User: Which sequence fits this backbone?
């Protein structure tokens, strides 16, 4: 499973390198995100810039990962493409997550919560 | 793996095994067929999402106890969108009806946030004229997806 981790400031940036987070890999994605963030810093920024397609199973996996990390770690999202952003918006999950327009924006000091 | 059949009036049919990776291949094949229509990215996103949700539901629910089920997808472009038909031979939908897909409540504690149940909400939100019938041991689901997103 392609997840790349990069420590940045007080946080861990996890870059999802796959182009789809769908029903075929949702459970694996959740488990691996949990593994790479274990014992990490309290702030985790998930970079979704490579992901073109996310279905409801993929959304469920991101929510499940966020719940597994809480309360010790907070999962934030960055760089959502149009199709991924739409799934968060339609399900109103964009109100649950802190979403940054880019990874850099997540470290600008001002969280661009949407 | 998915079998493609071109029909008249730009319609096409894809038949594939009811398994998660086959759904992925069928979606890829469908999107490739739709290249000819020169759709906007928004329309393409809506189409792929609705079909993914409907096809995943078949694999995860209708064919939950059927390892070798087959799914048939037929798409017909019309003047006001894509008319989609899905057919499977799995178990019927609960109470013989397509779920109404009520949006999940999110005003709760983090640990109580829903991790599922978004699929039918998305289908109902993005598809029109949705119809489900059970005929001779087959599930038939049809709907139309409008083409006007940016």
Assistant:
């Amino acid at each position: 499973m392609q997840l790349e981790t990069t420590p940045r400031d007080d946080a861990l940036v996890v870059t999802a390198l796959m182009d789809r987070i769908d029903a075929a890999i949702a459970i694996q994605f959740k488990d691996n995100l949990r593994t790479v963030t274990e014992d990490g810093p309290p702030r985790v920024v998930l970079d979704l810039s490579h992901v073109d397609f996310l279905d409801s199973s993929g959304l469920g996996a991101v929510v499940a990962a966020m719940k597994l990390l809480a309360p010790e770690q907070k999962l934030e999202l960055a760089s959502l493409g149009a199709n991924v952003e739409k799934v968060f918006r339609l399900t109103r999950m964009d109100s649950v997550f802190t979403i940054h327009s880019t990874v850099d924006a997540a470290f600008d000091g001002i969280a661009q919560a949407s | 793996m998915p079998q493609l059949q071109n029909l008249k009036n730009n319609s096409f049919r894809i038949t594939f095994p009811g398994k998660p990776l086959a759904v992925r291949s069928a979606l890829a094949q469908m999107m490739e067929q739709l290249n000819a229509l020169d759709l906007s990215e928004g329309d393409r996103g809506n189409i792929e999402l609705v079909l993914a949700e409907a096809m995943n539901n078949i694999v995860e629910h209708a064919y939950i106890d059927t390892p070798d089920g087959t799914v048939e997808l037929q798409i017909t472009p019309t003047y006001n969108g894509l008319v989609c038909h899905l057919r499977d031979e799995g178990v019927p939908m609960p109470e013989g009806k397509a779920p109404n897909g009520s949006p999940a409540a999110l005003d709760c504690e983090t640990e109580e946030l829903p991790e599922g149940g978004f699929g039918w909400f998305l289908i109902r939100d993005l598809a029109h004229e949705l119809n489900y019938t059970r005929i001779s041991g087959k599930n038939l689901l049809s709907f139309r997806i409008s083409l006007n997103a940016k």
